[in-house]
Specification:
Two copies of one chain form a homodimer. Helices cover about 50% and strands about 10% of the residues of chain A. Chain A is globular and about 60 Å long. Chain A is an alpha/beta fold. In chain A, the strands form two sheets. The first copy, chain A, has a seven-stranded parallel sheet, with helices on both faces. Chain A has a single domain, classed as TIM Barrel (Alpha-Beta Barrel), CATH 3.20.20. Chains A and B meet through helix 9 of A and helix 9 of B.
Chain lengths: ~350, ~350
């Protein structure tokens, strides 16, 4: 039904003529047309207005030519729906005026009705599916429970999320209660997105790499595993943990259809750690898109050679940076499309 | 000659009754007596006054009981000596008002005479050696050339040092010129420290983990290797790269006496990647020092069991955090001292 189904076939592990390609945060700040919308509408207005979310989601498909769309939204709409106030401040980023740092604060966090609180996302999914007209698949996403906890407790971005870790290490009972509430909400949220039409989902564990392997199992992975268990029979699930190379072996046994890899983990290490049979996604250093286009193309070809053409989805190792020239992003995508193994 | 030579014996790979223990940034902000000095003297006054540097360096030996001292100083005294202005701003950290971002700016960076520019560090080494009275060894340190470049180009701390990476990827010739100047300065600086009396040196590559394995070799490791080559016949060298698990195999062949490991790399992975024969140092998560002392002690015992008692130096996986209770730091050190394998 979907005309360009390379992405879905790679998720199934099928043999493909070339790998599919998309870029994390592809619907974003490096695109001049996005910046025009950004001047007119604030962050959460863009997220909450299905027409805007649709326009932004479809933008990179037409302008850069990726093989999959990812719904424009933010991982922090989930804590917002859970009764945690989230603002987006220029120059600072996420700002949560009332961080969750006590059992009492955790008790006030709710597991919301998704239709009531996040219906605007579901509307955006439906509208985007129509706009895409079955050209390419649509990905829905959510943050991992640990990554959401990081923001909920820290109250803003951080180099080391020290307050979030302090909360987990000094008040593990409250931390686990919060993580379970986030997990329950996320499962309901992703199931609703699938029902609304997304073709796959990705869980972003942006801050899993702050934890030791033992703490990662306890505070992050076991909740991601719950999400995979709940979703995997309905849709392909991609699990991406930045800096989580140490957990790849465990992640490969999870039932996820694919695993995201960042640029510090070589293709060889990633294939070795995951046993060679699961689809991998990544791992171009987003800063390397600042190299000249000819150099980008050479590096992309080498990346595909190392991962192999099959069971592979070309992507960056983290979100695209705002200062990337559109031509460089195009060179990245074109290099994948021109690949002849 | 040094009464407690556990640290030096571990660096030589000798069999020891228990592992030695020290903590990165042990002479610092978690100690109330340090905070009193901090109120009276600004950051670089503390670095530049040998009496103060000595007092601060010796403090954790008496108050926490570590098996080695590390000279109180900062990695940014090196760029300062190289004609790059460095300020330390409260609440911001390092602040370089004139970041080095062009070939012209690189040309203005000098390889200084160490005695003239950093003589105060050498005086502090001599004074500290006297104050230590051969109780424990003294470690000297420097930042890796890549890590120094990160600050020199970015101009301040950063989550991803995007401007530093942009500089390397768009102007590699200028970047390599700067890296070589930093390397030449660092070699002369560490040799002068050895001549002044330090018993070992550590190179801190705090931001090596921002790079892909290929870029790490090009922009970081090859310069650290130069430093090791130049120093290893004069003193034991410890190389610590935060997030640099992917380079451990290469690092193990470098001639370094020991390698630092952060908490995301398990003892098992670190031993496997380094071939099992080199001394390893680390890797307790600094945030885990917020756990109750009894729990800390249990985790320390397990850490030593996993690394093994020999060819091992107990330490944190990065610097101690300012909000750690002194009793928790003591519990960490005591647990190592009480270890019976």
């Amino acid at each position: 039904m979907i005309k360009n189904d390379l992405f879905l076939r790679a998720l199934k592990g099928e043999t493909v003529e070339r790998p599919p390609v998309w870029m994390m945060r592809q619907a974003g700040r490096y695109l001049p047309d996005f910046m025009k919308l950004k001047e007119k509408y604030d962050f959460f207005t863009r997220c909450r207005t299905p027409e805007l979310a649709t326009e932004i989601t479809v933008m990179p498909i037409h302008q850069v030519g990726t093989d999959a769309a990812i719904l424009f939204s933010d991982i922090l709409v989930v804590p917002q729906a859970m009764n945690i106030e989230v603002q987006m401040k220029d120059g600072i980023g996420p700002w949560l005026p009332n961080p969750v740092r006590t059992q009492t604060a955790v008790d006030q966090v709710i597991v919301p009705n998704i239709e009531e609180t996040l219906g605007y996302v579901l509307d955006a999914v439906k509208m985007t599916k129509e706009a895409l007209n079955d050209e390419v698949p649509l990905i829905g996403f959510a943050g991992s429970p640990w990554t959401i906890l990081c923001y909920a407790v820290q109250g803003q971005g951080s180099k080391n999320f020290d307050k979030a870790k302090e909360f987990c290490f000094t008040n593990p009972v409250a931390a686990h209660t919060l993580l379970q509430k986030i997990t329950d909400t996320t499962i309901a949220y992703l199931k609703a997105k699938v029902a609304a039409g997304v073709d796959a989902v990705q869980v972003f564990d942006s801050w899993g790499g702050m934890l030791s392997p033992v703490d990662y199992q306890e505070f992050s992975w076991k909740y991601i595993q719950q999400i995979i268990d709940a979703l995997k029979d309905e849709t392909p699930v991609i699990a991406f943990g930045k800096g989580c190379w140490f957990a790849l072996q465990e992640m490969a046994k999870s039932g996820a259809s694919a695993l995201g890899v960042d640029w510090t983990c070589s293709a060889r290490n990633a294939r070795y750690l995951t046993g060679g049979n699961i689809t991998l996604q990544g791992n171009f250093d987003p800063s390397r898109l600042l190299s000249p286009p000819a150099e980008i193309k050479k590096m992309v070809t080498q990346m595909i050679n190392e991962f192999g053409k099959d069971r592979y989805i070309a992507n960056l190792g983290h979100g695209i940076l705002p200062n990337i020239p559109v031509d460089n992003a195009k060179a990245f995508v074109e290099a994948v499309k021109e690949y002849r193994g």
